[in-house]
Design goal:
Distance between the termini: 35 Å
Strand order of the largest sheet: 1-2
Shape: elongated
Number of strands: 2
Number of helices: 3
Amino acid sequence: MRPVSRGEVRLTGADVGDAVAIDGAFLREEADLVALERCIELCREIGNSAALSEFVKREVMPGPISGSELREFARNAAGTYFHQSCTCKMGRDEMSVVDGRLAVHGIEGLSIADASVMPRVATGNTMASTVVIGERMADILLA
């Protein structure tokens, strides 16, 4: 839930209709791949535990693999829920894009009010946090 890998979203041109280039950098950092492997191992341990034995016939995926085979399985089978966030983080440091009023630093009249302003990836569903951000933007606009 707290990936180390960091992707990027880049503008491809100055026109508002120009597409953006998105690189999710999914599993690019070794720590993320190790965490995923450990997660698979933990799920196997739980699924193969004595407490669940009456409900389990066999392990369907990934099967009896380990080492480099398990790593390859993790890389090929994993995906995201596509709840991207934190691409335009709120804050005051050099990596921040918006301030506490959701205004983009250095661009007058432009604000962002979505999950991209979250400074860190939420460990739960992003919807609740995104609703709060939208409510905050509504308050700012009404004021």
